[in-house]
Amino acid sequence: xxxxxxxxxxxxxxxxxxxxxxxxxxxxxxxxxxxxxxxxxxxxxxxxxxxxxxxxxxxxxxxxxxxxxxxxxxxxxxxxxxxxxxxxxxxxxxxxxxxxxxxxxxxxxxxxxxxxxxxxxxxxxxxxxxxxxxxxxxxxxxxxxxxxxxxxxxxxxxxxxxxxxxxxxxxxxxxxxxxxxxxxxxxxxxxxxxxxxxxxxxxxxxxxxxxxxxxxxxxxxxxxxxxxxxxxxxxxxxxxxxxxxxxxxxxxxxxxxxxxxxxxxxxxxxxxxxxxxxxxxxxxxxx
Length: 287
Known about the structure:
Strand content: 15-25%
Number of helices: 11
Order of helices and strands: EHEEHEHEHEHEHHHHEEEHEEH
Strand order of the largest sheet: 3-2-1-4-5-6
Mean pLDDT: 93
Helix content: 25-40%
Largest sheet: 6 strands, parallel
Shape: globular
Structural class: alpha/beta
CATH architecture of the largest domain: 3-Layer(aba) Sandwich
Number of strands: 12
Low-confidence stretches: 1-9
CATH class of the largest domain: Alpha Beta
Distance between the termini: 24 Å
């Protein structure tokens, strides 16, 4: 995908970020910088945050939430409060950190899933109404060139057609995964939520509301089932075990495989993810 720059926004926004030492944080740092904005504060209990030098070397870093909170309060009291809080923390903390951001007067940009328990969405909506601030979710697959092409094809196709789709997604993970919070279903929601949520969003965006949800396999390292939408029947298989990669992919040493087959036509979207967070930020900031 051709790299894009978004440095022509009218007003520079001030960001803070929670979870700056995590895997996904660099994509947010890049998106904040490339969209012409700045980051004034960040927090993470793990202090492997040298990557800040490449993006925001003047950013104030804290390894304790209490100090981070006090710093943001001081900025707000001085009339220099943040405009946005980016949430890159583990899934089970998203709910609390989203509500925190709203309550300090910031809009919030969060990774998916927004919450692990759908009932908590009502609580977040209530805080949005109370504060007048909004929560935005990163929906990066909606900006992938292959997915955009697929959506165009479906939108221009027969309105009453129901498509037969197969999703095969393996993103290999090592032994560390099972020791981390990602390997704990109570903290990550399990494989379906942790890696599948991007595809559930994408399918609903293209094919409409879910009408049937059947899970055939659900283990510690894979999930498979059937999802029926208004315009599609989706058979899906998702795994973090490299043994489930197609043999031809394993032979190349590649550890990730993403493919969607629509009525026999395969769309490979293994590549093209580098700038999707930047595109997501651009759309959010443009309103």
